[in-house]
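Renewal narrative, Specific Aim 1. Our central claim is that a sequence can be written position by position from structural information alone. The example that follows is taken directly from our test logs and has not been curated for this report. It begins with the structure tokens describing the chain, in the order in which they were read.
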């Protein structure tokens, strides 16, 4: 059986390697196929254009696109047009994979005033890019109602060290009030494999977030302690300004847990300690 990773970037590659380790033949589509490691079979493909033929034994398709820039046009080309093109290619080649999974984003939700949201909560994107991603979800389910949408929160992990870099640079503590929902890259990839191979009757939608929504200030303070780098105090009104922005919400992973999925990094603490140990970032 073949797994097709349509958009084999960092997350798609990690998922592809896990599929390969489970015994699948994995085909990865990417504009720069030389960046795809073995044992994934790399193939040049631009999801915005004409796509290669899809193997007849393709059992799982993972659509994991990424926009080239944060504009409506770039997001529409990647998420809406790219998803439609993959579905068109499946129809062209007579493909009927058992599972299709689309990697989405929790950016489709709005501000919840610090409250809890789950898969049944209404979407209310605060940005045009979030609205485009929601449009892509709707397109997918209109054509494949049995497809799985996995809405991922902020991904961190190997090579994704923005907060670590900011702490090292002496970023100011944002103060209380700004919530963040996160997931380690490896857990996100593991969830993709789990939902497409280990769940007999998956739901159409899952939230990919770890066990602990947390204030950004707590994450920065934790990293400050791990790195031995003090944080500058926040201006008196900074926490209030940050808290007023969209996205102040706590996201539940109960549905994902209910499938039997276990997180390797259930909170940011375990995840960032692994990043610090594995990315060559050492305590000061």
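The sequence written for that structure reads:
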């Amino acid at each position: 059986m073949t797994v097709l990773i349509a958009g084999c970037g960092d997350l798609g590659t990690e998922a592809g390697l896990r599929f390969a380790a489970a015994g699948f033949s994995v085909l990865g589509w990417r504009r720069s196929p030389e960046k795809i490691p073995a044992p994934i079979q790399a193939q040049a493909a631009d999801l915005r254009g004409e796509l290669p033929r899809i193997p007849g034994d393709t059992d799982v398709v993972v659509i994991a696109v990424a926009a080239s820039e944060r504009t409506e046009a770039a997001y529409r080309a990647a998420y809406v047009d790219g998803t439609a093109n993959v579905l068109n290619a499946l129809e062209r080649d007579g493909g009927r994979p058992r599972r299709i999974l689309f990697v989405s984003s929790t950016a489709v939700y709005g501000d919840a005033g610090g409250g809890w949201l789950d898969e049944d909560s209404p979407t209310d994107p605060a940005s045009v890019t979030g609205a485009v991603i929601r449009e892509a979800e709707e397109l997918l389910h209109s054509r494949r109602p049995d497809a799985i949408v996995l809405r991922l929160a902020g991904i961190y992990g190997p090579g994704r060290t923005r907060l670590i870099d900011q702490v090292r640079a002496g970023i100011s503590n944002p103060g209380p009030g700004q919530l963040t929902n996160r997931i380690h890259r490896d857990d996100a990839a593991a969830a993709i494999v789990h939902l497409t191979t280990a769940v007999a009757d998956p739901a159409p939608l899952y939230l990919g977030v770890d066990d602990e929504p947390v204030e950004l200030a707590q994450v920065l303070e934790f990293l400050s302690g791990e790195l031995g780098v003090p944080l500058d105090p926040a201006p008196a009104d900074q926490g209030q300004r940050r808290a007023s922005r969209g996205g102040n919400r706590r996201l539940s992973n109960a549905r994902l847990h209910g499938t039997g999925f276990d997180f390797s990094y259930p909170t940011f603490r375990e995840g960032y300690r692994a990043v610090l140990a594995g990315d060559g970032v050492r305590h000061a």
